[in-house]
Amino acid sequence: MTMIKICGLFRQEDIEYVNEGMPDYIGFVFAESKRKITREQAEHFRKKLHPNVKAVGVFVKAPMDQVARLLNDRIIDMAQLHGGEDEDYIRELKNLAPFPVIKAVKVEFPSDINAALSTSADYLLLDHGAGGTGTSFNWKLIEDSLLPTSSIPFFLAGGLSLENIQEAINLVNPYAVDLSSGVETEGKKDKNKILEVVRRVRNDER
Ligand SMILES: O=C(O)c1ccccc1N[C@@H]1O[C@H](COP(=O)(O)O)[C@@H](O)[C@H]1O
User: Fold this and answer.
1) CB atoms closer than 10 angstroms to residue 50
2) Which ranges carry the N-(5'phosphoribosyl) anthranilate isomerase (PRAI) domain (predicted)?
3) Model ipTM over 0.90
């Protein structure tokens, strides 16, 4: 079954929407972004979040102690590193806070994926670029890489929406799909889009 992550929650009502839709993961963005939230907001939202939904913190070159504290204080369950953080960073973070790490990869060539396959992160996340832009990359690059022969699970991200989610899953067969811009209307999370994405992904696989 394909897991679902809804990223970039920044309002109280966003938490209510996901508690109704029940994706597998949600994301709190701590990086510079229109969706950025503070530790205090995340702590508050986490208390309201359904306990079966895992909270992922999204970071771009953040100070490691900030990430580790959010993990060790159980405000987030996993860290998504979206700034090209290197192996030393990932290993040291996992020493400081033994929680799952997702390494985001900007995919322009199959070699971008190949270079990430030896990571000590627990998951890869394949994206178009900076993150949260609503733009897809060429999914065929996955087929041309060594990822299909590897066992590392990966999140597919970048410009996913109700229009392309089923095609993406059929073509790429990711561990999880990750949506942010595609479940928004005028820059805010849209309850109906969230509920419909979850319904479609789950119903297709029954
Ligand atoms: O969402 C953001 O604002 C963001 C900022 C900085 C790094 C990553 C960010 N989001 C991640 O981007 C991808 C794709 O988002 P979209 O669906 O194309 O809008 C997703 O993994 C988000 O976690």
Assistant:
1) 13
2) 4-199
3) yes
With the most atoms of ligand 1 within 8 angstroms of its CB, the residue from 34, 127, 193 to mutate is 127
Ligand 1 binding pocket, CB closer than 6 Å: 7-8, 27, 29, 31, 33, 35, 58, 60, 82, 125, 127, 131-134, 157-160, 178-182
Per-residue pLDDT of the chain (206 residues; tens, 9 = 90+): 999 999 999 999 999 999 999 999 999 999 999 999 999 999 999 999 999 999 999 999 999 999 999 999 999 999 999 999 999 999 999 999 999 999 999 999 999 999 999 999 999 999 998 888 899 999 999 999 999 999 999 999 999 999 999 999 999 999 999 999 999 999 999 999 999 999 999 987 66
Tell me which residue of 161, 148, 170, 157 sits closest to 190, measured CA to CA: 161
- What residue segments make up the domains of the chain, in order of their start? 3-204
Domain 3-204: give its CATH code. Answer: 3.20.20.70
